[in-house]
Amino acid sequence: QSVLTQPPSASGTPGQRVTISCSGSSSNIGSNYVYWYQQLPGTAPKLLIYRNNQRPSGVPDRFSGSRSGTSASLAISGLRSEDEADYYCAAWDGSLSVAVFGGGTQLTVL
Amino acid sequence: EVQLVESGGGLVQPGGSLRLSCAASGFTFSIYSMNWVRQAPGKGLEWVSYISSSSTTIYYADSVKGRFTISRDNVKNSLYLQMNSLRDEDTAVYYCVRDSGRDGYTAWGQGTLVTVSS
By C-alpha distance, which of A43, A107, A20 is closest to B39? Predict the structure, then answer.
């Protein structure tokens, strides 16, 4: 199982706001930046959020990230059908000297 | 345009070896750290290995340590992954990933499929 824990699935209707959680420990989320990646069906992952809450250029401001203690979350507001994808959180684990990913959350837009 | 193009995947028997390559273009390859990340069929992402820009720092996931070797050639703008003693559980799509440090994994290749099966 993954070092970072995410819910396997989430869902929402168009226009809704959904949040995806990511739980870790003091050696990863608690002391290092959190990143979020979006993987659309059949494609490679893409960076969505970096340094906990920063958006790369081109990522809509509907996407936002936050971190508190050893947990992080990704919020998507104004949900759209094209947001249907798998979402992964990631961080560096200083104790293990490895990068760690969450197990991924499959988002369904109903 | 930033491009990462993996090659070298294929079908290999358990215990066999394979060498993956990643050709980088559209950016100054020599100043970026790089990673390999894999994804087993229908599963999530798993980080495999990291190499710094000058190859001085290298890390591996425990699952591949002692079997896989990451390397790079900054003249050829290429990243490699030598995979030995392959196991069924190494079956996955392997992605070449550009590491922008605190800015995250900012570029991903399209992936190359490695299938370990007898």
Answer: A43
